[in-house]
User: Fold these one by one.
Assistant:
Number 1:
Amino acid sequence: YHLVFFLLEIFNNIIQYQFDGNAHLVYSIIRKRHVFHQLSNLPEDPATISKPKKKDREEQGAVVPASPENGEWIPTKEWVATWRKKLPLQTIMRLLQVLVPQVE
């Protein structure tokens, strides 16, 4: 999960300090804005959190359900709430708030 933080920090740096030279990145962020909105509205309930993992296991043919006994880590509601608060999304969300109406 640390890689998500680092990637968001890179985006923030580019938006803040190198905005003019990175029009393609900014446009891509605008086009994929649903991803950033999903990150800012991460669900906290364990059933919703484990859905993507369940799909991955089904695609790989695994029948064993996710559980700590199987050695698989399952995020708790508290962990997700803490993690979501730390996501550096303010700059990107502000960019979307300002530029999306202009692009559309």
Note: The mean pLDDT is 84.
Number 2:
Amino acid sequence: PIPCVPWQSQTSGSGVEDSDFFAVRQAPQQHARDMSYGGIRTMFEEQDGPQLMAKLQEEVFRVMDSYEWSQITKGMVVQEVEEVLGFQLKEHHKRFIKITIMRIIERSR
């Protein structure tokens, strides 16, 4: 069940009482851990082939070397990697690609 919490302790002009409730979906507790680099590495180990992480990283380097960085976005890099690999990437794959992009940029400074 979705937990409900009180909205406000006032009434509106439409006669809405302070006892009215609205539903709130809570974020999964593991989300922050799962999307950290260590969490992502664990997800690769549990869900993917042993070489996928290296292949994704290789493709990110290829894309980053093919364009002026000011002309591309992280989303464009993700899309191009997805097209080259020929399958839809999972969320942890996309997050890993974005982390890789940021590391490339940081190392170039």
Note: The two ends are 49 Å apart (CA to CA).
Number 3:
Amino acid sequence: STKIASELDLEQVPMIRGEGKQCRLLDIISTTRGFGDYDLKCQEGGPYLKPFLTSFPEVKSLSIDLENHEPDDVLILGCDGLYESLSNDEIGNIVIDSLVKSEKHDPSRYAKAAKTLVEACRGTYDGRHWMKNDVELASQDDISAFIIPIVNEDHLMEIKSTNNNS
């Protein structure tokens, strides 16, 4: 049988509790883990969780003015394993440092920057554990990172050439 969640049900258990990896929907499941589990219920026979989960993403479109960007301007996409391990500033600094050290015409420079981010999260193996540094354990979560140039250099040159001719 199915129970329709009432206002009272929602007051008894907060919708979302916790932070980071410990964040749970209705005190039972990480939201990304339950998309395929149609029979999942709250603890102690509470309401089904499926009505509270959706696999439909929230999509936002932003207009990017190509004339204001250089070849090293990038979009960084990463999963929670990346953003729970490194701050936005650390991520930005690692990517900038990687791009500065690479050859401008190296076709794999963006992939190398993504690999550097993953390695920073994963850390080094000390024989027993993966360590981010001497005292902090590295992320055990999956880590995905994509570095996407906002505009490629050939396209940027076309834009500049067109603007200079007009």
Note: The mean pLDDT is 75.
